[in-house]
């Protein structure tokens, strides 16, 4: 029974959209109705500046980490820890508190990954920073990090079940970035800090 509660708690934590909450608190309105329509840090940056973006990034990443720490605090087995992280990620994508209109999961997925395995998390962060610095496009950096994350986990000391949970997270990240992928292919994807077209 406690296992079900922990996984459900992971989903509920994930359902707290930092971008929506931060934007409302700063009087920016709902980020899902402006810019790219995504409540993530990149869109919040375009709408409200660096402070709002940093708060969104910390909030979304932090809830992913918190979900895993909660599972560890209750000494859950690796499969439940894996499911809790996946639940937090899905909660961000389809949040019960925000009409199931969520984000793309990059920051929350990173928070989960970092709490699952800090070496894999740091490798994914380095990948994001490198691709973002070269390509100047947040979506491209996120896609690269998501694709490589299962490989980083496989090479880390994390249990195999954690790697298996990362695979659908990576796939969902790609799915949620369909519009970005199309814009990347036709050269219209905004650069970091640039307003969406």
Shape: globular
* Number of helical stretches of at least 4 residues: 10
Detail the poorly predicted runs: none
Q: Tell me the Rg in angstroms.
A: 16 Å
Helix/strand/pairing category:
mainly alpha
Number of strands: 0
- The average pLDDT value, as a whole number, equals 93
Largest sheet: none
| Helical amount | over 70%
Q: Can you write the helix and strand succession as a string? A: HHHHHHHHHH
Compute the separation of the termini in Å.
48 Å
The tally of domains stands at 1
How much of the sequence lies in strands comes to under 5%
Describe the structure.
GO terms for molecular function: acyl-phosphate glycerol-3-phosphate acyltransferase activity. Pathway: Lipid metabolism; phospholipid metabolism. The protein has one domain. Helices cover 72% and strands 0% of the residues.
Short characterization:
The protein is mostly helical. 72% of the residues lie in helices and 0% in strands.
List the helices and strands and how they pair.
Elements: H1 2-14, H2 18-25, H3 41-48, H4 50-73, H5 78-93, H6 106-116, H7 118-135, H8 138-155, H9 160-176, H10 178-186
Helix pairs in contact: 1-4, 1-5, 2-4, 3-4, 4-5, 4-6, 5-6, 5-9, 6-7, 6-9, 7-8, 8-9
């Amino acid at each position: 029974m406690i296992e079900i509660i922990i996984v459900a708690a992971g989903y509920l934590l994930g359902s707290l959209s930092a971008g929506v909450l931060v934007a409302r608190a700063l009087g920016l309105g709902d980020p899902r109705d402006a810019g790219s329509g995504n409540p993530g840090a990149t869109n919040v940056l375009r709408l409200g500046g660096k402070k709002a973006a940093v708060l969104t990034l910390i909030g979304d990443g932090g809830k992913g980490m918190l979900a895993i720490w909660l599972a560890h605090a209750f000494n859950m087995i690796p499969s439940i820890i894996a499911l809790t992280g996946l639940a937090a990620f899905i909660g961000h994508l389809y949040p019960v508190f925000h009409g199931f209109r969520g984000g793309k999961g990059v920051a929350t997925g990173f928070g989960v990954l970092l709490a699952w395995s800090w070496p894999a998390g740091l490798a994914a962060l380095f990948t994001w920073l490198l691709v973002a610095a070269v390509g100047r496009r947040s979506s491209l950096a996120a896609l690269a990090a998501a694709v490589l994350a299962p490989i980083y986990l496989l090479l880390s000391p994390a249990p195999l079940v954690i790697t298996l949970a990362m695979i659908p997270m990576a796939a969902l990240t790609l799915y949620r970035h369909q519009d970005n992928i199309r814009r990347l292919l036709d050269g219209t994807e905004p650069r970091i800090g640039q307003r969406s077209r």
